[in-house]
Amino acid sequence: MTTALCPGSFDPPTNGHADIIGRAITSFDRVVISVIDNPAKRAMFSATERIELLQEMYGDAVETTSFSGLLVDHVRDVGADVVVKGLRTVDDYQYETQMAQMNRHLTGMETYFIPTRPEFAFVSSSLVKEVARLGGPMSGLVPDVVEKALKERLS
After folding, report:
1. Domain harbouring 136, CATH code
2. With a threshold of 0.90, does the pTM exceed it?
């Protein structure tokens, strides 16, 4: 059984995240979505809230958790075989490749890159939050449950 770990901030989860996670679900036996809990960053949603959103989105199709610290330690803790990362841009590729190579150097951990579908290549959590703060439409950017949470948070 192959277990894939999909780590990210997911603040908030977007349709781009959903694209990558959905494809991981069809490719691996077990998928764990792991929210990075970095207290140094000012998140719109707490790690617990982000986990709850992801659980609403996926139900029993995935496991959800959070972590802080080194990804390679977390991979070992959840028993993952591979890490799955989505790529939107050349900048993502450069950054994620460097991280993947470091993680492989540290532990031999493999990283699988999934390029996002073109219709989601421009979608990022930070842009979604900006559009939401300014009252823009969320259609096509985030799942319905996330749109509802954003509206509630910003009202």
Report:
1. 3.40.50.620
2. yes
